[in-house]
Amino acid sequence: MKTRNSMIVLLVLVTLAGSCFAEAYTPPPPVPDDRAPIPKPEYEGAKDDFAEGINYEFIYSLKNTLNISRQIRLLTDTPKQALNVNAFGEVDDNSWFTNRNARHPMSLDEISRGACSGDGPDTEHTWIIKRAKAEGVTPGFHIKDARGDRYVIKFDPIGYGGLNSGADACGAKFFYAAGYNTPENYIVYFDPAILQLDPDGVSFTDSDGRKRHMTEEDLDAVLERVNILPDGRIQCLASKYIQGDLLGPFSFKGTREDDPNDFIPHHHRRELRGQKAFAVWVNHYDAKGANSMDAYVGEDGEGHVVHYMMDFGTVLGSGGRGPYPLFRGYEDEIPTGPLMRKIVTIGLDVRDYEKPDSVLYPSVGRLRNASLNPDKYRTVFPNPAYDNATDLDMYWGTKLVTSFTDEQIRAIIETGPYPAGGVDHLVNVLSERRDIIGRTYFGRVNCLDRFEMVDRDVLAFDDLWVEMGYGEADEVVYNYELQNEDGEVLSSGEFAGTELELPLIPDKLGDHRQVRVELRLKRSDEKKFGRYVQVWLEDDLAGGYRLLGVEREE
Asked: What is the per-residue pLDDT across 235-246, written as a single tens digit (0 to 9) for each?
């Protein structure tokens, strides 16, 4: 515990020293690799889902309101920034996240495959049911196929074949391509005759709340509650068991005490804070700890913990029990604000998202963009990481979202069980949502990015606003100011294009031989130059500069 606290303090102090107290730029220290060998932690079962939601809805929210330092940061617009970013504001590969599509664009084959390494369970031979979930709205099984592989089998609600299974399969592929760890999720069609109860008994809870062994009659009763295709087969989602020993879900707040590698509070990790932008995009309104899993990979004492996102059955247009409800994403599970609005206006104030619409495709459900405001998007219960997301976190998350081209979106959706019209609908809606998110957060911070030195004295970059087609390159004017570490302006001016030739002025550099390039831009519809991005460079002693880091104004 002391080691973890000391590490957090060190990261904060070095970051502050680099940005506030020293004239020269000091890059933040590398975040220690959280995949170092550790003893296997103990399994921790899932917390009561509803109780945890109520805690976040009321107690956690109240604590934030009464947190004086937090309120001061809000009033002074100086929010606490994520603790695990590198010198360029990025997240290095770790046990939570691996840079994929945004860093190295994936091929259509790679992106449509996702985490899947095979073709799913063997449907030609018997499935042995090892565990069963018969209670609730959507039943499911844990099975072992003839190959010995284990899967969690999830079914679609009657009348909505493909709704949950399509969302879960495609959702996993979107999150995987973004960089998160996900299970191998497959859409599978099987003959229910291959199902066989484990001879050693299958424990389950019946409709009367009794725990007992499942019988063939119980199995038949469960199958009567799932969607059956006209040919008698069942379409389902088969989620392959993840590798390693399961340790239970993680939390979007705090740390895991028995994992020495887990020293950064989860609500201060950029990959979890910035995930909010991605959740808004694919409509993951049920983003909570219960829909995650930690696993220990490796031999005891030689392995480490890997953190998985899972259970995507309510993304896209799915609501789990049927189409996505109208109010989801716009209201909390306990919508006190909207409820008061209804009372005060006697129900006369009807928002766009409350207006009924039709569900064109049962397998697609309901997904639309009416009144979509990324800042006001609401998950079922408050998510501590999402609630702490700053503009810089959302900017990072938006880069994940906008890394998906229309062709990549279609490649993923076409792996689902959707009719041609449903595919087109989802692709169009997701493309529109991507651009709503992109315009929102690329317009809020300086979105010049991917800096690199060309020929040692030319600073090149990408303008993500222009790259996404939100504006034309010839409508932008860039401004730069070159300063040494003492703040002395060495050169300044306006320029066009995304390459800036820097003057070499070695005799005017300070002891650390550093320069800071402050870049601003003004688009045709703007009256003045906007917020800056500062690029720190160092004289390479060979007639050029090398990159040190980037700082953005929020």
From this structure: 999 999 999 999
**CA dist., res. 330 & res. 135, Å (int):** 29
| Segment 186-231, tens digit of pLDDT | 999 999 999 999 999 998 887 777 888 889 998 998 898 888 899 9
What's the token pair of residue 45? Answer: 């079962």
Q: How far from chain centre, in Å, is Cα 554?
A: 21
Cα 259 off chain centre by: 22
Residue 280 to residue 436: CA distance in whole angstroms? 10
Q: How far apart are CA 351 and CA 327, in angstroms?
A: 10
The C-alpha torsion from 73 through 444 and 403 to 28, rounded to 10°, is: -40
Q: How far apart are CA 174 and CA 408, in angstroms?
A: 10
Chain centroid offset of residue 463 CA: 23
Task: State the Cα–Cα distance between residues 495 and 525, nearest whole angstrom.
Answer: 18
The tokens for 207 are 């409709």
- Specify the amino acid at residue 165: S
Q: How far apart are CA 292 and CA 272, in angstroms?
A: 12
Paired sense of beta strands 127-133 and 195-197, if any: parallel
**Structure-derived torsion over alpha carbons of residues 524, 529, 532, 537, reported in degrees to the nearest 10:** 90
pTM: 0.90
> What does 404-456 look like in DSSP terms, one character per residue?
--HHHHHHHHTTSS--HHHHHHHHHHHHHHHHHHHHHHHTTS--EEEEEEETT
